[in-house]
Structures are given as C-alpha cells and as structure tokens.
Amino acid sequence: MSDQSSATATFPAGGGEMGQLIREKDWSRTLVGTPDQWQQSLKTTLNIILYSKFPKFLWWGPELICFYNDAYRPSLGEDGKHPSILGMNGKEAWPEIWPIIKPLIDQVLEGESLYFENLLVPIYRNGHIEDVYWTFSYSPTKDDFGNIAGVLVTCAETTREVLLKRNLETSERKLRLIIQQAPASIATFKGPNYVTDIANSNALALWGRKAEEVINRPILEAIPELKEQGIKALLDDVYTTGNRFSATELPVQFLRDGKLETIYVNFSYEALYDANAEIDGIIAIGHDVTNQVVAHKKIEANEEKLTMVIEASELGTYDYNIQTNKLDGSKRLHEIFGLADNEDIDHEHFVSSIHPKDLGIRKAAFERSFNDGILEYISRLILPENQVRWIEVKGKVHFDEENNPHKVLGTVRDITSERINRQKLEESEQKFRLLADSLPQHIWTADTEGNLNYFNQSVYDFSGFSPEELDREGWLAIVHPDDKEGNIKAWKNSIATGKDFLFEHRFRKYDGTYRWQLSRARPQSNQDGEIQMWVGSSTDIHDQKEFTNELERLVVERTNELAQNVKDLASMNKELQSFAYISSHDLQEPLRKIQTFSTLLLENEYENLTEDGKEHFSRMQNAARRMQALINDLLSYSRTSMSERKYEPTDLNKLIVEVKMDLKEELAQHHAVVESDELCTLNIIPFQFRQLLQNLISNSLKFAVKGREPHIEITSEKGLGSEFDLERLSPTTKYCHLRISDNGIGFDPQYSDRIFELFQRLHGKDKFQGTGIGLAIVKKIVDNHNGFIAAHGNPNEGATFDIYLPEKQ
C-alpha cells in the first residue's frame, strides 16, 4: 500500500485542489486502477484539465470515470457531488441528468463533437435539484492507441445570465404591455436615427400609420411629413442634451388618406438611458387634443359670429332688472331710441318713448312672459320731433329661487323699413288681385312646395266652386280624370327642377262639360336665385284643339290613301314587269320564223334575185338580228328587276375568271388584256354580278379603238363612305369600291349620267352594234345591291366605271 501511495503521490504534480485530491485518492478501489497503470493519454489530458483556468470535466473509459478541475468545482455547489464523484462512473455520479446527457456522450464516443448554448440541465447541488443553464462543448479524447476513450467537457454555467436576461425580457414585456395599454400615445425611438422601437395603438392612430410601416424604421423616414415641421430639431436637442421638451396644443400635420391633416397634440420628449447612463433613445408621450382645440375655436368663432350677427342685424340688446327697475342697453339700443352714447337710457325713458296706443300691448306681453318666460311684442316709438318708428322687442325672463321674475335679457330691433315694405307689398298684392280678377284667363299662384294658394275670380266662375269649396276639394277636382296623373307628374317635375311648367289638360266647367286648357307657370326668384313662389295661368285652347284634332284626322285619311296608292302602284309595276317579260319572250317565235324563211330564200333563190332584191334581203336579216338583240336585252333587263335577290358571300376574283372564260373567244379575237388585282369578297347576287362584269367587259371590247389592243384594268379597295368623298354614300357604312377602266373610244363627260338610261346610245348603230340596254342593266344590278355607279371618260382616252357596294347587305 505504501508503494502504491508513493506512486500516486507523484501524479499529478500540482493541479490545485483537484490535483491534491487525485494524489490522495485510493485509486485501487476504482475501476480505472492506480495512476501508475494509467495510459499516457489520460495523464496528458488530466494535466491539461487541471492547469486550465476554464471549467473542464472528463469522462474516461468504458465506465465514463469522472474527473474535473478547480475551475469546474464551484458549479457543483455545496452539500452536493463534490468530491464524491471524483473517480466515480458517470451513471452513478449523475443519475438525475443521465437520461439527458448519455445520448449526447454516445454521439461523441462515435467521433462527433457537440456544442450547446444556455441549455437547461438540472443537477443536484446545495442539498437539492437546481435548474442550471450551461454553455458547453463535448469533444472526444483518444487513448494511446488512437481509439476514442473518453469525452472532454468544456463548460461555463450561464444560469445567472439566463435568469437575468429572462427577468429583463419579462420586465420589457411588462413595460411594452403597460405602454400598449396606456391611454396616452406612447412611442420609443432608439439611436441617433430615432428608429421606432415601440409604438402603442394610440400612437399609430395619431400618426395614421400601421405598425409594419413604422416599427424598426427611423421615424422621420416612416413619417416624412414631419421633416418640414421642425420635429427633427426637437429630437436632436433632447438626444444630445437630455433636456425634456413639452408642448401643448401644438399643431402637427400627418398624411392621412393622401391628404395632410392638422392634429393638435399635447406631448413631451424625454431621453432614455442605457446601463452606462448614456442616452440611447427617446420616449414620446402625447395626447390628441384636436377635439378640444376645435371646440375652443368653434366657441370663439361662434362668439365672433354672434357679435357679427348682432351687429349685422343691427339689434339693440338690453338687460332689465325687474326688481331694481334698472335698464342697461347697448350702443345700438341708444341709436334706436335716438340717444347719444353718453346719454343714459333708463326704464322710464324706455317706457315713455312707446306710443301711448301701444302701452297696452307691452303690458299684456309682460304679463304673459311672467307665465311662460318669453317676452315678445311689437310697438311704435315716438322719437324727438314726433318721428314714429316701429320696434320688435324680444326677451327671456329669468326667475329667482322663489320663482319670482328677476330680470329680462333681450333684444330690440328697428322694423320700420319692414313695416313700410309690408304695407307696400299688401298694396301691390291688392292691385295684383284686382288685375287678375279682371282677366278672362285662369290665374293662380303656388308656394315653393307647389301648393296652390290663390285663384282669380275666373277660376271660380268657370268651375262653379266657391273659394271654400275649391279649398276643400282641391284644384285637381276640376281636372279631367284622364289628365290627372300626367298633370301631377309634370307639376312635380317643375317643382323639383325649377323649370317652367307647361301642360295641356281638360278642366270641368260648372255645367259638367270639359274644355281644353294650356297651363303655364314660371318660378319667381329673389336676387340670389332662390324661388319664392310660382305664378301660373290657364288659357282656353278648346277651339284650337278641336281644329288640330280635325286636321290630324284628315292627315291620317290622306296617309291611308297614299299607302293604298303605293300598294296599287307596286301591283301595277309587277304586272308591267310580267307583261314585258311575256311580251319579249313571245315575240321571239314569229321573229325566228322570219329569220328561218329569209335564210331559206337566200340559200335557194339567191341567184334569181336582183341586186336590189339581195340588198333588201340583207337589210331585212340585219333588222331581224337587231330585233332579236333588242328582245334578248329587254328580257335580261326584265329578269334583273324581277329576280329574287339571294345574297351570297362571293369572291370577285373567281367571278372574273369565270367571265374571262365565257368571253374567251371575244378576248382572243380583239387581242384584249384583262388585268385585275386582289379583289374584294362581297355579299352579292352572284349571277347578276356576273352579268354586270360581262356587260362592262363586252362594252369595252365593243368600243375599242381600231388598231389599239384593248386593255381592261379592274381594281378594288375598301373603306368608309366618308373616305370616298361622295355625298350619296353613308359616311359610317363600309363600302367596296370596284373600278373598271379601259383604253377605248371613251365618251364626252357631259354624257356621264345619260349612258345609263334605257335605249340610250351615244353612237350610231351603223358604227357600233347594240340596243342601248347593256349599261342600263349594269345600273339596275348596282341598284339591286344598294350601291352607286358613276362613269367617267374622255373622247379617245377610254372610260372608267366606279362602282360602290356596301360590304354587308
């Protein structure tokens, strides 16, 4: 044993209290064995731990034997684990936290280092389990063979800091709660940029901002309108000097709903200090006193208005003490009674100035006022030089504690001008009534609400009502039942809009008959344009109405006659078209026989004919051919007018190709060229439009210049009628403009309209064949399509046909 103790005493050398305890401990009784048996890696690790000034702990070996240094010793407290856990296996030494730390130790033994900050790990110390917070790291340590043999713990107890921080957070939460619940507007700003840290709901409401708009933002950036109002200078002064700033009823403008609104505030700024007694922020406490300020200003304004109203209305005021019989009056009261400012006006002078005949009125008014508290009367004043003036006296009687009249406060108003004007008005109204009663027309007046309040004598004479009966029955009693609803509607509209009233209706006469009346009424307005009354009249138009009704009856009859004539004309036109068709069709049969027999005669008897006979037969055949052409053209013209109009979307390019195929021989014979660009697609009658194109192209071939190859050009464009500058086109309708031009013989411009007439020819039949119907058919087809055609030409320069067709039929 002495040899073992001697060996133990040599390790470790030094190491403070824990080094001494290691040297003195009998390690032979432990699972780790005596120090002379320890691996060098364990000794090295223990030397590092024991000489470290930072708290360290070591678990070693499979049993996780406990070692720790002097710096760790205070964390074990008193009456606890020290020094018993030195050399003890971990599970026995730390039973209260083993479920917590054993999984962590296992991770480290696998080769992983761990770190935790402010972790709660309760331990047994000071005689009980305590909540202890640690910041620590677990690191693996290796044995002499490079295997992980233990866990090195470097730790620091942070219980005090954690609890201090928690208490600080609790205190801050309480402070924030107090601020949030405070009835005042409270906010705190941190740093020299015055970043908003706290702002309660009252402060946000005062600023007109949401929390996310101001919290953690410099207050002068969140509420930029404060920059121009001197707020920054106030904050800077408090932040730099620590001096408190306060103000009452200070006007501050805040941006609310896009507009600057002035708010009146009682507020103060005070500096906030950190732990080092340095200013690190400002607290602002305020109260919105806008309502108080506005109320004060309203009171002041009302007082000013009252003074202005009294002065403007030229009211004289008085204070009459009934018990002392003393009267105090204003400057205006002196003026009304014809006294100078320095002259006293007492009660005796007041009473003595009243007209003797009106003293009874004054006395009765005072007796009434002692019952209801209201004094009111009108009387005359007799002023010096016997000048008479009218006054209106009003007042409020005040009673003492025993309900006896004590004093009267009131006003006196000079109403002389009003009395004179009223008298003039009454005289004017009397003249108006005399004039109105002398007129045969019905004259009436109404108030601003539309209530009729006067009728002249003509109304009573016409209706047979007395004034009392008409007032009881109402003026609508004389209006025809069928006209009442329209009458009321028109009258209400005039009252609502202020527009003149004009209405035709029937009034019932005293004998039960009804006569038509034209009623008119105009509003009468004052200088400010405000309607004061309505003046109306009703004029008998019965005879004119009867004449108008008779005239309307005759117009209806004539209209019906015209409609029947149009119908008959349409029927005749239809019959005429049928006749033309049948006639032209039936005429072809005898014509064919004439042509057949003349042909047989020429073939069989030609050699037997004289030269004159041959000439006569030739002329007869030419006449028959012209007759056949005329009948065919008449038949085509008739069909153009009579055919059923079925419109179809048609590509004009395809139609041109078909026409060119139909006229292939004629085009080749004349060496003619037909050019066309990309043409419109239109809603048209296909077979009619095909005939139109064929007629125009054939016309160009027929009137070609000898020796000049015909050149026909066809183009189209679309546009609104307004773009083509033609009065006949609807400006808002979309048209297709089709142009067909040639280089033929042309025509004189003076015949531009004539060439479309039926049977019209500009050249003799000996020069150019034809019946003069081809262009008439073209125009008829254009008319069938609701279009317009125009022809332009010059002699020997060719002709151009411009056709305008609406895009939709």
From TrEMBL:
PROSITE patterns named among the record's database cross-references: HIS_KIN (PS50109), PAC (PS50113), PAS (PS50112)
Disulfide bond found in the keyword field: no
Xref: PANTHER family: PAC DOMAIN-CONTAINING PROTEIN (PTHR43304:SF1), PHYTOCHROME-LIKE PROTEIN CPH1 (PTHR43304)
CDD domains: HisKA, PAS
Coiled coil: none
NCBIfam families linked: sensory_box (TIGR00229)
Catalytic activity: ATP + protein L-histidine = ADP + protein N-phospho-L-histidine
One Pfam family, short name: PAS_4
Enzyme Commission number(s) of this protein: 2.7.13.3
Residues covered by the Histidine kinase domain: 582-809
Keywords: Kinase, Phosphoprotein, Transferase
Domain PAS, residue spans: 302-373, 428-498
First-level EC class: transferase
Sequence ranges assigned to domain PAC in this UniProt record: 246-301, 375-427, 501-553
Species in which this protein is naturally found: Algoriphagus antarcticus
Name this polypeptide is given: histidine kinase
Any one GO molecular function term: phosphorelay sensor kinase activity
